[in-house]
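Sat 14:20. Reprocessing the chain from the morning session after the first attempt stalled halfway. Input below, unchanged.
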Amino acid sequence: MDIFYPLQLISDWVTFALLNLEIESHLGGAVNFFVYDSLKILGLLIVINYFMAIIRYYVPTEKIRDFLTKRNWYGLDYFLASAFGVITPFCSCSSIPLFIGFLSAGIPLGVTLSFLITSPLVNEASIAIFLVLFGVKTTLLYVLAGIGVGMVGGAILGRMKLDNYIDDKLQTVIKASKQNTPLETHAVHKPFGRLAYQFWLEGWDLTKKIFMYVLIGVGLGAIIHGYVPSDFFERYLTNSSWWSVPVATILAVPLYSNAVGVIPIMQALVAKGVPFGTALAFMMATVGLSLPEALILKRAMKKELLISFFTVVTLGIIIIGYLFNFYSPTI
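Finished this time. Tokens:
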């Protein structure tokens, strides 16, 4: 069962019972989407930020950081981050709390960006649907493509030395995590109840600083989800010209969905004659690049880092689209 199923029940009750909106209406779909995603991301933020507060308190984060930065991993650290992204069932906006938690724990920026790139692109549910719709070989290529975009994108962004463009308040948290304070040194002597309350305060403080941006981003996604027709974009993609891949990628940016929700649309696009790589670029851009994601990330990134992130991911998705069009997998 979906671990978020109870939240869906609450969302359905608020939308269709409390507010008495029609199930098939645009407004009903938008409100249901907004309530569900807001509750889900708020829950994730609270749990993850609480957990990361515990990690920062007990675990010597400078050793973790040194472990990841002072060894020649030959790209393995980026691979591990991307692989972890594959096994986390989050959409782009839901991945952001983990991204912030990793940064606040002192994990290198490029490595955390590898996770942030890959997490929405590939997960176990999308892999299962891909297997059913497109077969084993194409699914394997899709997984490798998602991991590859995450690894290469994270490595490029890491080498660009963009750490100074993390939000100032988040940078303060990161700098604090690099210091061995007396509080951390004597952690074992503090009563459990006092520690639990301290973890809650620290985690909630970080959560409330970014949640307003979450609501704005999810609200925009809800409007798009409820009011943009599902067949709006396919009319512009049934073309094999060289520009169809970048156009598909750009057209997908206003959308907001997870991979599971958009893969059936991708299948429909392919069935209507859209080249496979073009349809894949559309799917990846829908789940990996979105205006709601940008609005939420704006709370953690300054514009220089945000623009660099979206530029690198966009180029990576476009390249993947061209490669799959060249490969032309048999569906």
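The chain has 16 helices and no strands.
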